[in-house]
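Hey, quick one: can you model this chain's 3D structure?
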Amino acid sequence: MATVMNRVDEHGTNLAAANDADGYRPTADEPFMSLRQQAYFRQKLQQWKDAILRESQETLSQLQIDSLREADLTDRASSETDWSIELRTRDRQRKLVSKIEAAIRRIDDGEYGYCEVTGEPISLARLEARPIATMTVEAQERHERNEKISRED
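Sure thing. Here's the predicted structure for all 153 residues.
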């Protein structure tokens, strides 16, 4: 199965390579979620995921190298606190990787860029800022208001 990254446009241009070469950014002047936009967001999501996985691997390597060797109890406690914070950060990023993978699947399914609540297109500016977004700003605000009301009950 060919992915969007491997697709070519009507001129035979590899869309992913074209995105890199010309500094492409999606605009409202082109059809929403065209193959080029899909390739752009796929590449953006994949690069984000790769960066997170690279950082996670570096953390694991550092954990193996820097085992807790401090003789002083205060220094050891400080190191344990630092590693605890680092591991919590990595756990949040693990969850983020799942959301990134879900966004890539939505690209494959042709659902990326459309609100899961209303079905309306999510603005390009929102997708640019938060490529894993699944709702329009308005739908997200309604969802958060309803969530807040539910918590207060």
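One thing worth noting: Residues 73-109 form the longest helix (37 residues).
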